[in-house]
Specification:
Elements lengths: L14 H4 L2 H6 L10 E8 L5 E3 L7 E3 L4 H11 L3 E7 L18 H12 L4 E6 L21 H18 L3 E4 L6 H11 L6 E8 L6 H6 L3 H4 L15 H13 L3 E5 L5 H11 L3 E5 L1 H12 L5 H15 L3 E4 L2 H11 L1
The chain binds ligand PBG.
Keywords: Heme biosynthesis, Lyase, Magnesium, Metal-binding, Porphyrin biosynthesis
GO molecular function, one term: zinc ion binding
Subunit structure: Homooctamer.
Length: 337
């Protein structure tokens, strides 16, 4: 007993504030809200499609019609933004991913129908070529497989313009080419899309946690054994991520993102403190899969771990989270009200 009697104790007894629910609520520093969520969904051509993504239990690919009730549910729950990711028919995939710029393509059609039915729901679209290329890389490649910067940026600009034209509220370049934010910003302004927001995947790491996503959009097979180390950031690096964020802000990003989420909370904190920008974290497919797998095995309490993982993004400094848990978490938040 005497060993814990220090100069501080018992004057300082932190457990006083933790003793009752009212005092825990009174001193709570961060609160998770439905307003923090962006819900990523996969879409594919078809009718009434609910095609399971095997490595992401609970996640399915929707068709342009079956996505509508999901959007309606987001509106009902108060989720502010839906993020669209396409699973493109293999026959439409080419080395240059040009289908990404087709104004009649899957994504522009889905954007237009969602904005028509649910104008109050924000729509975010990924700008990158990997769902559209026959080799699964995010851009055009040369004979050695190296992803070419400027030729890729040219196509990305066209892809972003098509998305803006269809009504996307946010274009979100996830490709990590140099200079793409500036090029897209200039093109949007030149075409009078002055209110289209750019959410830049600024600190995007070359992560193995994207595995299940690549299954979902069907790029795993095409990518084969190659990786994305020549454009995404080395997981070992911190300063490099901050330089990327700085560049994207100078080039015209309205919001910045760190990706993946949970293993990169230090970067979320750094970005928020250094730039004071609207800052988002992407709790990626592999993070979702890990929690689901452990919960299915009975090793973790699903709902508690899900809510804790999301709250910790807020504590780290994120203004919002792209998460496949958005609907499940929003339902829990609604019950708590
Ligand atoms: C495409 C893109 C990826 C993700 C979002 N946009 C995959 C990648 O870069 O290989 C990953 C999302 C997730 O894992 O949930 N550039």
């Amino acid at each position: 007993m005497s060993s814990i009697i220090t100069a501080d104790f018992p004057a300082s007894r932190p457990r006083r504030n933790r003793r009752d629910d009212f005092s825990r609520r009174l001193m709570r520093e961060n609160i998770l809200s439905v307003n923090d969520f962006i819900y990523p969904v996969f879409v594919k051509e078809g009718n009434n499609l609910h095609e399971p993504v095997l490595s992401m239990p609970g996640i399915v690919r929707y068709s342009p019609d079956s996505i509508l009730p999901v959007a309606e549910e987001c509106v009902r729950l108060g989720i502010p933004v839906l993020a669209l990711f396409p699973s493109i028919e293999p026959s439409l995939k080419t080395p240059d991913g040009i289908e990404a710029t087709n104004p009649e393509g899957l994504i522009p059609r889905v954007i237009a129908s969602l904005k028509k039915e649910f104008p109050e729901l924000g729509i975010l679209c990924d700008v990158a070529l990997d769902p559209y290329t026959s080799h699964g890389q995010d851009g055009l490649i040369d004979d050695s497989g190296y992803v070419l910067n400027e030729p890729t940026v040219e196509i990305l600009v066209r892809q972003a313009l098509v998305q803006a034209e269809a009504g996307a509220d946010y274009v979100a370049p996830s490709d990590m080419m140099d200079g793409r934010i500036g090029a897209i910003r200039q093109a949007l302004e030149a075409h009078h899309f002055i209110y289209t927001r750019i959410m830049a995947y600024s600190a995007k790491y070359a992560s193995a946690f994207y595995g299940p996503f690549r299954d979902a959009v069907g790029s795993t097979v095409n990518l084969g054994k190659s990786d994305k180390m020549t454009y995404q950031i080395d997981p070992a690096n911190r300063n490099e991520a901050l330089r990327e964020v700085a560049a994207d802000i100078r080039e015209g990003a309205d919001l910045v993102m760190v990706k993946p989420g949970m293993p990169y909370l230090d970067i979320v904190r750094d970005v928020k403190e250094m730039f004071r920008m609207p800052t988002y974290a992407y709790q990626v497919s592999g993070e979702y899969a890990m929690i689901k797998a452990a919960a299915i095995n009975g090793w973790l309490d699903h709902d508690k771990v899900m809510m804790e993982s999301l709250l910790c993004f807020k504590r780290a400094g994120a203004d919002g989270i792209l998460t496949y848990f958005a609907i499940e978490a929003a339902k829990i938040l609604q019950q708590q009200k």
